[in-house]
Design brief:
about 575 residues, alpha/beta, globular
């Protein structure tokens, strides 16, 4: 019996049966594969097992930030498992192959119809638009269409068409400037200021328009501060300009974020095809459209606003296709994920999500202003028409938020009327040090606070405002679907910790300053609401110091050894003849 088994073993091993000796390639971490094992600038000469390739990349990506704690991004960082399953099932489909994937094309047209309805397109009008890779491509197509229509009018009138320009505010995202540069248009940037809330100044924009202006980009949701530019007011001003000077200027609305926020959170706001001069609208499905990155949309008011010359008919794979995108191949999976979200949530679901985002953004705004350390440059938490930070506006915002929070508890969460008392805008919080805090701590640095927040995992950028206001630096937090009240509480706690640690670093070495961990017993439950409610009256300097120490005590950062220390300035440094005071454990 033993002899017969021994005779069979060689054949079994050739067939892959039976035991074999373990080799290095069977091991995940012992196989010796690393990115630095060869010249990373050269194409890999040999392959590696799938498990090792996956683990190598997976481990290297651990050094990325956590998308859930990335407060800088507007992009969607979470979708339901069913949506993710749908994406994986359709990764191999190319959307442009409409003859092969007819049902996918039907879904594409349904999505266009949904957006046409959402943005108040003419009833009975067939939607004119397309899915794109992102709103940047949509902006380029919208700008190109305006240029071609302007050029056709000029040529028909026998006029020069060699010097086109396009007008938009200096707070524009880079895609708008790319459109002008790539398609040979002069970019006329409208300066921004505190008076214009760091976005489009209507009168200054009108002054830049002439007979060579192909159109305007108007931004529904500035990435810098979250403010909406006033589309309706700009349209009325263009009507007057047309009556006075004959310049017929259309508008493309860059609704990268706002085109999915305003219809649900601020439906009374007229910014879309209800505004006569709006020729086209672009948006990102992967921002507040709630879909993973890789999808955007652009729609025109009517077919005549998309010049025929921009549309191609292709005979491809047995069918005739019409295309007017800048790229050709495009994955179907994110289009299908967008349709999933439309079906999954509907108007009421999107309204509930956007209202929650606005609520949490206002809670964060009121809480951080209540510290006395930070002032919001964004205005979504202030009473409608009240713009800019002051002690009066802070107190008014605090009182109104308290009233609105009680009203929200009495609604289903889908009622947009809870947003009506406040200024319109994106659920974005842009903030900086108050003048009082800068005066008390002239060397305080928002960059240091931003960096310290990274220690706790948060990604909160600190950046300058647009040209003409670049001396002001702000930190930004974008509130998204996956943000919660607990999320806000923890962010507020860690912002307080980072601020105090920055102050400690002026009198200690970095190791000492970072050596105070959060007290395990310091719960964050209800923290943001407590802070928001703690400062609803004006305070003098002594009261502000006491208030700050109370906040530190609440989060466990006022340590026993610090409680009896002198709270007056402890040391002075001389810099170019100027004395600067630094405080211990206080503001």
């Amino acid at each position: 019996m033993d002899d017969s088994i021994n005779e069979l073993l060689p054949g079994m091993r050739r067939l892959g049966l039976g035991r074999r000796r373990q080799t290095a390639t069977d091991m995940t971490y012992g196989a010796g594969y690393t990115e630095s094992s060869g010249d990373v600038r050269s194409f890999p000469p040999t392959g590696m097992p799938a498990r090792n390739a996956y683990q190598l990349i997976h481990d290297s990506l651990r050094f990325d930030g956590d998308p859930a704690l990335n407060c800088a991004t507007f992009l969607t960082t979470w979708m339901e498992p069913e949506a993710e399953k749908l994406i994986v099932e359709n990764l191999g489909k190319n959307r442009v192959d409409i003859d092969e994937y007819e049902q996918t094309e039907r879904i594409h047209r349904r999505c266009l119809a949904h957006l046409h309805d959402l943005w108040h397109g003419a009833e009975g009008e067939k939607p004119t638009g397309t899915v794109v890779v992102g709103s940047s491509e949509g902006i380029m197509l919208g700008g190109l269409a305006m240029k071609w229509r302007w050029r056709a009018r000029r040529q028909a009138a026998g006029k020069d068409a060699s010097r086109p320009n396009i007008v938009f505010a200096a707070n524009a995202q880079v895609a708008l400037e790319k459109t002008a540069r790539y398609f040979d248009m002069e970019a006329r940037l409208v300066p921004v200021s505190a008076e214009s809330r760091f976005c489009l100044d209507v009168e200054r924009a009108a002054a830049m328009i002439d007979e060579n202006t192909v159109g305007m980009f108007v931004i529904l949701g500035s990435t810098y501060t979250g403010h909406y530019e006033n589309v309706a007011e700009m349209s009325r001003r263009l009507d007057r300009l047309y009556a006075d000077a004959g310049h017929d200027v259309p508008i493309h609305v860059d609704g990268a974020s706002g085109a999915f926020v305003a219809p649900f959170a601020q439906p009374q706001l007229e910014w879309d095809f209800r505004v006569p001069r709006v020729a086209s609208i672009s948006t990102s499905g992967h921002k507040f459209g709630l879909t993973y990155p890789g999808i955007g949309w652009v729609l025109w008011r009517a077919p005549e606003y998309l010049p025929d010359g921009l549309t191609f008919e292709l005979s491809y794979l047995g069918g005739v296709e019409k295309t007017f995108t800048l790229n050709f191949s495009h994955p179907s999976c994110f289009l299908l994920a967008q349709y999933y979200q439309f079906l999954r949530y509907g108007r009421t679901g999107y309204a509930r999500i956007m209202n929650a985002c606005m609520y949490h953004a206002r809670l964060l705004s009121v809480a951080i202003e209540a510290t006395g350390i930070y002032a919001c440059v964004s205005d979504i938490h202030r009473p409608r028409g009240c713009l800019g930070y002051s002690e009066e506006s802070r107190l008014a915002a605090s009182r109104m938020f308290a009233d609105a929070a009680q009203a929200a508890e009495r609604t289903s969460g889908t009622d947009p009327s809870v947003n009506e008392p406040f200024n319109d805008g994106l659920p974005e919080v842009a903030f900086c040090f108050t003048d009082w805090f800068r005066h008390k701590h002239p060397t305080a640095s928002q960059d240091v606070v931003s960096t310290l927040l990274r220690v706790r995992g948060w990604i909160v950028p600190n950046y300058p405002l647009p040209p003409d206001a670049a001396d002001i630096h702000v930190m930004r937090v974008v509130i998204k679907e996956a943000s919660s009240e607990d999320y806000v509480n923890r962010l507020v706690r860690d912002l307080l910790w980072a601020t105090q640690t920055m102050l400690d670093m002026h009198r200690q070495d970095v190791a000492e300053a970072l050596g105070h961990p959060l007290a395990p017993s310091a719960s964050t439950s209800g923290l943001a609401h407590e802070i928001a409610a703690s400062n609803r009256a004006s305070m003098d300097d002594a009261q502000k110091h006491s208030h700050w120490n109370g906040l530190l005590k609440r989060i466990g950062e006022l340590h026993a050894a610090d409680k009896d220390k002198d709270k007056h300035p402890k040391m002075e440094l001389q810099n170019n003849g100027t004395h600067k005071s630094f405080y211990q454990k206080s503001c």
